[in-house]
Design brief:
The chain is of the alpha/beta class. The protein has a single domain, classed as Inosine-uridine Nucleoside N-ribohydrolase, Chain A (Alpha-Beta Complex). The chain has helices spanning 15-25, 44-57, 78-81, 83-88, 108-118, 132-140, 175-178, 181-188, 199-202, 209-216, 222-232, 248-254, 299-309; strands spanning 5-11, 30-37, 65-67, 123-127, 148-154, 194-197, 262-271, 281-283, 289-297. The radius of gyration is 18 Å and the shape is globular. The structure holds ligand AGV and calcium ion. Calcium ion binds at residues 11-12, 14, 16-17, 41, 128-129, 249.
Length: 312
Amino acid sequence: MSDKKLVLMDHDGGADDLLSLMMLLTMPHIELIGVAVTPADSYLPFALEASRKILDLLGRSDIQTAGGDLHGVNAFPAAWRAGPHIINALPILLERDEIQAPLAAEPARVFLAQKLKAAPKPVTVLMTGPASNLIAALKAEPDLSNNIAEVVWMAGAVDVAGNVRDYVHNGSAEWNVYWDPPAGKTLMEAKLPLTIFPLDATNHVPVDLNFLRRLAKQRQYTLSDLAAQCWATTINTIPHYDYQYFMWDTLATGYLGCPELITFKRLELSVLADGPNAGQTIPAPGSGQWVNVADKVEVAAFHDYLLEQFRR
Ligand code: AGV
Ligand code: CA
């Protein structure tokens, strides 16, 4: 058996998610065993295409990608969901005539279950979108939780404001929880080893032009060039309007490669499933679940880590 850490990724197709997939594929101690896509912050066909092209580009056309058939309660803005459509048209992802990395026949929730079942040892599940697929898989087969080593989830806003701006909402939730609040609540109560990257941590890592300048200087590396272009598609949310873009998912993914740059708190948390603060992560002393919650980040060192991983 390989001594690499087995990872299943479930992402939702944003620029940040696709950058996270690239990062994962640069980590020598990680064995990615499958990619599931949730059609939340993306339209599914665009996100599947981009994921498979990235697998091809990084020489991992052997890894399967599965599309999710579940839809959350609160839709993401349509303009955001079109994001991977632009990424699919970037030159580096247009060069090849055909996509090789296979599309799985089954929907993402079944795919996740199959991959967990077939794995020779417990798997780390990295989720950079909503939790719906994993929760559906565990609902169908609760014993699968024994095959999970850790769930790493970019989600929540604990002691800071949320990032949802929607008509019937008060702004307290983070989008990945808000898309499917009941799934978020179920995951938070599932007693799995859970590490979350809430906005409290990711607020430290806005997409920053000085970082992009450094990345530009090494764009002779294909992956740096592609990463720089992906981040460039997020830049129209800079500067500080309501929707500045952060390295949300990329920070959560970085946990698998440079955990020493992040500090954590143990907190007892829960999630509100409905009402004007649907999807809010709340402290629940005595009644919630103990969660490993990312807190502070050594930002300069994290930037250096990203630059190093993308030099290929
Ligand atoms: O809330 C952060 C999550 C992350 O998984 N996503 C984006 C990241 O992939 C939703 C989101 C919040 N603000 C956004 C988002 C924005 N301005 N554009 C696109 N997506
Ligand atoms: Ca995401």
